[in-house]
Amino acid sequence: MNLRIDHRHMRFRISSAELTTLCQNGVLSQPILLPKRRVLDIRIIARKQPCSLLLYCSDDCVELRAQPDALRKLRLSLPSVEGLSAVQEVDEGKVLKLDLEVDIRTQK
User: Fold this and answer.
1) Which of 15, 50, 63, 83 has the smallest set of CB atoms within 10 Å of its CB?
2) 98 CB burial (10 A radius; 0-12, 13-18, 19+)
3) Is 96:90 a contact under the CB 8 Å cutoff?
């Protein structure tokens, strides 16, 4: 899993194997060790919700929630350069663009 953070944009990129795992198990998780024995957990979770992608953050977790049906459709469309995208309001009038992409370059 790869996470890119830019101004008002977060892009999660996973391999096709990780997409398969996400569809089968409902979760991908990647812990990142931080100073003072802290851990930041980066997760992608399959969860029923009204929008295709939704970001949730806490002190020790960044969680991208994705609709299970949208994940299955994405998996069936591979290899494709298309992914899942959404825009989430983070503050009055300010939005964050979210993308979930599958890196098709790693396909064998």
Assistant:
1) 50
2) buried
3) yes
At 53-79, the pLDDT tens digits run 999 999 899 999 999 999 999 888 877
3-class secondary structure, 93: coil
- List 40's β-bridge partners, or say none: 32
State the DSSP string of 8-76: TEEEEEE-HHHHHHHHHHSEEEEEEEETTTEEEEEEEEE---SSSEEEEEETTEEEEEE-HHHHHHHHH
How does residue 108 score in pLDDT terms, banded at 50, 70 and 90?
very low
Q: pTM here?
A: 0.88
Residue 91: both structure tokens together: 């503050």
Contact of 2 with 100, CB cutoff 8 Å: no
Paired with 101 in beta bridges are: 13
